[in-house]
Every structure is written in structure tokens, then in C-alpha cells.
Write a structure and sequence with these properties.
Blueprint: E1 2-6, H1 11-15, E2 22-31, H2 34-45, E3 58-60, H3 88-93, E4 98-101, H4 107-116, E5 119-122, H5 128-131, E6 135-142, E7 151-165, H6 172-180
Parallel strand pairs: 1-2, 2-3, 3-4, 4-5
Antiparallel strand pairs: 2-7, 5-7, 6-7
Length: 184
């Protein structure tokens, strides 16, 4: 069943999501990859203000390409989420409620998702040009020096994703491995 959700995410929204749910996300989300995460965590540890409010925020692990004429953004496909695993637990503890990427997460991230009531979504890798059609606006809000990895505030409409990790310990990637395992 497809669920439509809006950002910022609340614990009420998150509590209704289960691993395997197909969602369409509408609202503001932020982009950040490992270089930006490193800077954000340094700010948190130094008790400095962040360039955006983490409370209820969703971060999309993406480094988009430059926009072609007439578009707000270029190709915007997910990057491998495990590269952010060293940073994610602290960010989740400080209010981050959603992450979008591809691939599995570490035990520490899954624990933080359950403990602090967050959610991890996966988006289709290799479909960046198609996913970018759901991005209606994009503006750099921090770290312009990082180029494609700068933090951007995106407005998305009906952005397609799948709940990979939920607050109940569900893990669609692990469930899939078990379901299709051939050897004992």
C-alpha cells in the first residue's frame, strides 16, 4: 500500500510506517553527504548552531548534478548510506527523523532509529534523472564550497521511497535476504 507523508516528520507519522511500506514524500528535505555530515557533527559537538533545524528533518544522501536548462536540479540519485553511519546516530539523537539513501545501515544506526523514533528510506539507485522530476525547488543553504555535496534545501512532491528501517526493528533489506536465500 502506498502512503503519502509530509515533512517535517513527526513521531505520529513515523509510528505508522513499517519496513516495506512504499511512500511518497512531499515537503522540504535537505541534502547532505559525508563531507557535510562531518561538518554538521563538528558543530553539534561544539554546541554551535546548525545551518538548518534538525527537528523533524529528512536528509537525502545525494550529490546532485548541475541543473540542465529549465530545471531546478540535475540528476539526483541516492548515494550509499553506510558512508554516513559514523555520523547518523548523533544526528538522530539531536532530532533528525528521516534519511533517504541506498543500501543497508549499521547496527548503531538501526539502534538509534528505534531509540529516537526515526526512519530510514531507500530510493532507487540509478534512477537519479527520474527522481529529480519530484524535486520542485533547490537552494544551497550551507557549504557551497563542497560543490555537489553542499547542503541544499529541496522541496519535493510525491518523492518515491521505501521504508527500509522502522522504529519496530523492521529491516526490509534483511527480510529480503532471508526471503530469497537459496543456501542454508
Amino acid at each position: 500500500m502506498k502512503k503519502t507523508i509530509k515533512t517535517p516528520l513527526t513521531e505520529e507519522i513515523i509510528s505508522e510506517l513499517r519496513a516495506g511500506d512504499i511512500v511518497q514524500i512531499t515537503g522540504y528535505i535537505y541534502t547532505a553527504r559525508d563531507a557535510a555530515h562531518k561538518r554538521l557533527v563538528a558543530l553539534i559537538k561544539d554546541n554551535q548552531p546548525l545551518p538548518f533545524d534538525l527537528q523533524g528533518a529528512v536528509i537525502y544522501y545525494v550529490g546532485p548534478t548541475p541543473p540542465p536548462p529549465g530545471r531546478v536540479i540535475g540528476s539526483a540519485g541516492p548515494t550509499t548510506s553506510s558512508r554516513m553511519d559514523v555520523y547518523a546516530p548523533l544526528m538522530i539523537e539531536k532530532g533528525l527523523k528521516g534519511m533517504i539513501g541506498k543500501g543497508g545501515r549499521s547496527a548503531a544506526v538501526k539502534d538509534a532509529i528505534q531509540k529516537h523514533k526515526a526512519v530510514y528510506f531507500i530510493a532507487t539507485g540509478g534512477a537519479g534523472a527520474l527522481l529529480s522530476r519530484h524535486i520542485k525547488s533547490a537552494e544551497i543553504v550551507a557549504y557551497e564550497d563542497l560543490g555537489p555535496e553542499a547542503i541544499r534545501k529541496l522541496y519535493v512532491e510525491d518523492f518515491p521511497a521505501i521504508v527500509a528501517n522502522d522504529i519496530y526493528g523492521g529491516d526490509v533489506l534483511e527480510e529480503g535476504k532471508k526471503k530469497f536465500r537459496i543456501l542454508p
